[in-house]
Write a structure and sequence with these properties.
One of its GO terms (biological process) is vesicle-mediated transport. The protein is mainly alpha-helical and 92 residues long. It is built from 1 helix and no strands.
């Protein structure tokens, strides 16, 4: 009878150890899930900042391009007016 009690006690100890291992694994899993959640939130925030910065750079490049086009048009107009001034001046 004592041997049966010892066997049952041994089995209970093994079950308790397995349960303790399962609880530890569950706690580790919870920590990993929390870590992944924090990382995903950080990545989400970084992507928002990247998008905001990319849009700002895009807008600055557009303004720079428009300024260059305006300068080129102004130079062309000045050349045309200069040529017209010379042509009109020679006729008089």
């Amino acid at each position: 009878m004592s041997q049966k009690v010892d066997n049952v006690k041994k089995q209970l100890d093994e079950v308790a150890q397995v349960m303790q291992n399962n609880v530890n694994k569950l706690a580790e899993r919870g920590e990993k899930v929390n870590s992944l959640q924090l990382k995903s939130e950080e990545i989400n925030e970084l992507s928002k900042n990247f998008k905001r910065n990319a849009n700002e750079v895009k807008r600055k490049i557009w303004y720079k391009d428009m300024k260059l086009i305006a300068i080129i048009i102004l130079i062309i107009l000045l050349i045309v007016f200069f040529i017209l001034f010379i042509v009109i001046g020679k006729k008089n």
